[in-house]
Amino acid sequence: MVRLIPRDEKFYDLFIEDGANLLEAARQLDSMIGSYDRLEERVAEIQALEKRGDEIDAEISARLERAFITPFDREDIHELMTHLDDVVDGIQASAETFVIYRIEQPDDDARRMVGILAAQAAQLMEALNKLERGKGLTTHLATVHELEHEADGLSRAAIGRLFSDKRDPLEVIKLRDLYRELEETIDAAEDAAEVIERIMAKS
Questions:
Q1: DSSP 8-state class, residue 190
Q2: What's the pTM value of the predicted model, to 2 decimals?
Q3: Which residue in 19, 16, 14, 33 sits closest to 113, CA to CA?
Q4: Distance separating alpha carbons of residues 119 and 17, to the nearest angstrom
Q5: What is the CATH number of the domain that holds 167?
């Protein structure tokens, strides 16, 4: 039978699921560098969350193709999905960097950056939970931006210290790459917040 009424596709539930998956990945990374044990096992857990994120994104894309009417612009749906995915990909890449580079212990700067990322993830989750109602998001999104600014200053200072201290050159390269990976992931979280802000401005 031909469907005469457009299919009512729900996207908010999937974005909430995507946000919850992102938050869990960020918390797993925070836990990993907090205890810094069972690294291979912990990285595998984060990799599994990244795969789950890909599955959620595939479902969002499928719904987008089926939907006649969407709750907000198709371009914004795609961009939000993409930036949330970028955060989870960055979390996975950061976790893998600790293992691939054989970093003996995360330093205080790396710990602080991971903590900032986890805090951003929590704020994004709160915003996604409130997206359908369209109210009460502003504070959460502002906090994501504030955290990014904090991380930006922290990263610059941390890289500066690497080159001012008399460290082993190989260690400098390892930590510099790690800081950059974390900073890019934090930037991706801010990008996701900006998409949500754009969605709210259009509503």
A1: H
A2: 0.93
A3: 33
A4: 18
A5: 1.20.58.220
Distance CA 29, CA 189 (A): 15
Q: What is the pLDDT of residue 9?
A: 58
Contact 192, 131 (CB under 8 A): no
Task: Give dist(CA 108, CA 167) in Å, integer.
Answer: 16
Domain-located, residue 79: yes
End-to-end CA distance of the chain: 34
Range of the domain at 138: 12-202
In angstroms, rounded to a whole number, what is the distance separating the alpha carbons of residues 44 and 20? 18
Q: Per-residue pLDDT averaged across 136-156, rounded?
A: 96
Task: Please classify residue 37 by burial: count the beta carbons closer than 10 Å to its beta carbon, then call 0-12 exposed, 13-18 middle and 19+ buried.
Answer: exposed
* 1 assigned to some structural domain: no
d(CA 67, CA 77) in angstroms, rounded, equals: 12
Nearest to 55 by CA among 29, 79, 81, 25: 81
Token readout for 114 is 């991971």
pLDDT tens for each residue of 34-76: 999 999 999 999 999 999 999 999 999 999 888 888 888 999 9
Which tokens is 9 given? 């596709």
Which residues neighbour 12 within 8 Å (Cβ) at sequence distance 6 or greater?
71, 128, 131, 132
Q: Looking at the 3D structure of the chain, how many domains does it have?
A: 1
